[in-house]
Amino acid sequence: MKTWYNNLIANYPFLKFIGNRYVIVLVFFLVWMLFLDTTSYMEHRILNEQINELEDNKEYYQGEIKKDNKNIKNLKNPSQIEHYAREKYYMKRDSEDIYVIEYEEDEVRKKDSIAKLQ
Known about the structure:
The protein is an all-alpha fold. Helix content is 78%, strand content 0%. The protein starts with a helix and ends with a helix.
């Protein structure tokens, strides 16, 4: 058995280094920590991606909150309430008529979107 091992090391000198028990333990430890452990490198990468996604969501929602607060401040003014109601809900005064103009391109888009849904 010894002669076989000695012949192998004589032909391939790098196996002497790899055959060292400390190197074997170190390689086992690295494989375990990088891939198999619950706190592995792969697990940390996934968690870091989730953290980055959540931070992006946080920034987006904080921006939306700022926009909503600005809209709320604007809607405290009665003239702004009327302006918002006219634009958003097509409300009108009793003495007015409102005409909603739809273009042909809008109708084509609606038909296309309905056809895609079916």
